Amino acid sequence: MNFSSDTSAPAHPKVLEAVLAANSGLESSYGNDRVTRCLRGQLATVFGTDDFDYWLTASGTASNALALSCFCPPTGAVLCHAGAHIAVDERGAPEFFSGGGKLHLLRGPDGKIGPAQLDEALARINHDFVHETPAHVLSLTNLTENGTAYSVAEVTDYAARAHASDLIVHLDGARLGNALVSTGASAAEMSWQAGVDVLTFGLTKTGAMGCEIILLFGKAREKKRELEARAKRSGHMPPKMRYLSAQAEAMLADGLWLDLAAQANGMARKLADGLVARGVSLAFEPQGNEVFAMLPDDQVTALRAAGAVFYPWMGGSQRFVCSWATEDTKIERFLSVLDA
Ligand SMILES: *Cc1c(COP(=O)(O)O)cnc(C)c1O
């Protein structure tokens, strides 16, 4: 009954098969290999456009920090939610990679930036006032850190407001698949069509071994060379990139990534419904593969004693994360512990 994180899940067998299939013959290095080049066609299909560039890394933190550093100068700031992964879970990587860029933390319920908070922050930007740190980027996360989803309409609205203040829009999509399944939106609708300029597209939590893709859309493509240079300098230019790309190839083929995200979301739904049916209240409406439950201490103790693994979260809730590998029977057993 391991609900600690979707990173606890194994990689999907098809990912390993693709890695094995890529493991033959000599290949060009540093992203010039056949597998990485073929990925362009798949990404073009998934995102419904040819107007993009891409880069692969093995961690979401590296992807976020590299992506943000291309758009936020050392004297600038990134607007993000106070609970954003870039703010609380990356040990200062965005600030480090940008050479001192500041994160400007915004509030809002359910892990989402509030519209008024965004407007207030945008109105404060003043490049002529030397003492304040002007924002250059708006960073949104979908699925959010509270397991809620921004709709396409919300992302579109926020991106338009940010663009009106000359900001670049970054989307942290470590759980993009979960958000797409839950909102019914396509990858195109939730990214460049909504105004997202740079996307960190996570496949690790969805079912890869370790594969995250940075996508630069449209005008953001002018940062391609800078992104590559920063990747090299920071040690994120894997010589044998074909093995990262093979993972992405397997995940994107036939929509496997969305099937796995749907599976994870379905398990979270089942867990959430079971908790609510037993009178447990949820801290947030589950719109992906994460459930945040307000469990009394005695139930937490009983669940832990029965072998359930999960973490306490901010605000007094307990976080339960489901993945493609979460089994029905584990959820049933978990709920039976509560019944007992
Ligand atoms: C997991 C996660 C990441 C990436 O984390 P890594 O452990 O560095 O791969 C980034 N953003 C969000 C919202 C996440 O949940």
Short description:
The chain has 340 residues and is α/β, with parallel strands linked by helices.
- The ordered string of helix (H) and strand (E) elements is HHEHEHHEHEHEHHEEHHHEEHEEH
**Strands, total number:** 11
Straight-line N-to-C gap: 16 Å
Strand portion, in percent? 15-25%
Structural category is: alpha/beta
Please state the average pLDDT score.
Answer: 97
- State the share of residues found in helices, binned by percent: 40-55%
**Count of separate structural domains:** 2
Bound compounds, each kind once, are: pyridoxal-5'-phosphate
- Dominant shape: globular
**Biggest sheet, spatial arrangement of strands:** 1-7-6-5-4-2-3
Sheet of most strands: 7 strands, mixed
Rounded radius of gyration (Å):
20 Å
- Overall CATH architecture of the largest domain: 3-Layer(aba) Sandwich
Family: Belongs to the threonine aldolase family.
Domain Aromatic amino acid beta-eliminating lyase/threonine aldolase: 3-294
Organism: Hyphomonas atlantica
Keywords: Pyridoxal phosphate
Question: Would you write up a description of this structure?
Answer:
Keywords: Pyridoxal phosphate. Pfam families: Beta_elim_lyase. Homotetramer. This is Aromatic amino acid beta-eliminating lyase/threonine aldolase domain-containing protein. Its cofactor is pyridoxal 5'-phosphate. This protein has 340 residues and is an alpha/beta fold. The protein has two domains: 11-255, Type I PLP-dependent aspartate aminotransferase-like (Major domain) (Aspartate Aminotransferase, domain 2); 257-339, Aspartate Aminotransferase, domain 1. It has helices spanning 13-22, 34-47, 60-69, 85-88, 93-97, 115-123, 152-164, 176-183, 187-190, 224-233, 242-252, 256-277, 297-305, 328-339, and strands at 52-57, 77-81, 102-106, 135-141, 168-173, 198-202, 212-217, 281-282, 290-294, 311-312, 318-321. The strands form two sheets. Strands 1-7-6-5-4-2-3 form a seven-stranded mixed sheet, with helices on both faces. A four-stranded antiparallel sheet has the order 8-9-11-10, with helices on one face. β8 and β9 form a beta hairpin. α1 packs across α11 (242-252), α2 runs parallel beside α11 and α8 (176-183) crosses α12. It is globular. The model has no long low-confidence stretch (mean pLDDT 97). Bound molecules: pyridoxal-5'-phosphate (PLP). Residues 59-61, 64, 85, 141, 145, 172, 174, 204-205 line the site of pyridoxal-5'-phosphate (PLP).
